[in-house]
Write a structure and sequence with these properties.
The structure is a single chain. The protein is an alpha+beta fold. It has 3 domains: 43 residues, no CATH class; 113 residues, Nitric Oxide Synthase, Chain A, domain 3 (Bovine Endothelial Nitric Oxide Synthase Heme Domain, Chain: A,domain 3), CATH 3.90.1230.10; 56 residues, no CATH class. It has a two-stranded antiparallel ribbon with strand order 1-2. Strands 3-4 form a two-stranded antiparallel ribbon. The chain has a two-stranded antiparallel sheet with strand order 5-8. Helix 3 crosses helix 4 and helix 5 packs antiparallel against helix 6.
């Protein structure tokens, strides 16, 4: 879409890679044409993925973005509609992990396993369990890399159970509020469902007095 509609040819440097930042598309007024704005790399430096015990992992030049941002959000406040609301969160290590190894994403599980020397061919009879070993090492590498890069929003990296706990606690707190604001009751149940789908990552859980029950 960026190339067809806006004629974007890639970074101004002329060098295209696997981790290029896409430009921002900003339309200040519906009557105006959208404009492209390149993201200055110095404002959002990549986090390079390393592991202190597996130096060959660095040869793959794995990297990820420091902050996940969300666009196209509207905010209605005091009767005024704000159409360009900045919002960002923080990454969970499993998000970055899946972005790097899932087949429908970067699909780097096999190259990473080969760099670590634990590919299926080097560990016969252990398929498919070598993948679990790769995932564990890469998860530690991601956590180590974000921590040493001092990248943080509230906290630097959190795991799924921690996120699920916080969402459950938030849901329970909202439930208490809804006792005095009945109109929120429908939305509370919807928030509960969404939080478990988004943050459960395959683990069936339910909230019970702020705790997680698997």
């Amino acid at each position: 879409m960026l190339q067809e509609r806006f004629g974007w040819k890639g970074p101004k440097s002329g060098e295209q890679g696997s981790y290029d930042y896409l430009p921002l598309v900003v339309q200040a007024d519906p009557q105006d044409e959208p404009e492209l704005f390149d993201m200055p790399v110095e404002c959002v430096p990549h986090v390079h993925i390393h592991h202190p015990k597996y130096p060959d992992l660095s040869l793959l030049d794995l990297r990820w973005y420091p902050i996940p941002a969300v666009c196209a959000l509207d905010l209605t406040l005091g009767g005024i509609l704000y159409t360009a609301v900045p919002f960002n969160g923080w990454y969970a290590d499993t998000e970055v992990l899946r972005d790097l190894i899932d087949e429908d994403r970067y699909d780097l599980l096999v190259p990473i396993a080969q760099a670590l020397g634990i590919y299926e061919e080097t560990k016969p009879g252990e398929a498919p369990y070598y993948k679990d070993e790769v995932i564990l090492i890469l998860s530690k590498a991601i956590h180590y890399s974000f921590k040493t890069a001092k990248v943080a929003m509230i906290v630097s990296i959190v795991n799924n159970l921690c996120i699920s706990y916080r969402m459950c606690k938030c849901t329970n707190d909202l439930s208490i509020i809804s006792l005095s604001l009945p109109s929120l009751s429908h939305n509370i149940s919807r928030i509960t469902t969404i939080s478990l789908i988004c943050f459960g990552t395959g683990t069936r859980a339910k909230c019970s007095q702020g705790s997680i029950v698997q």
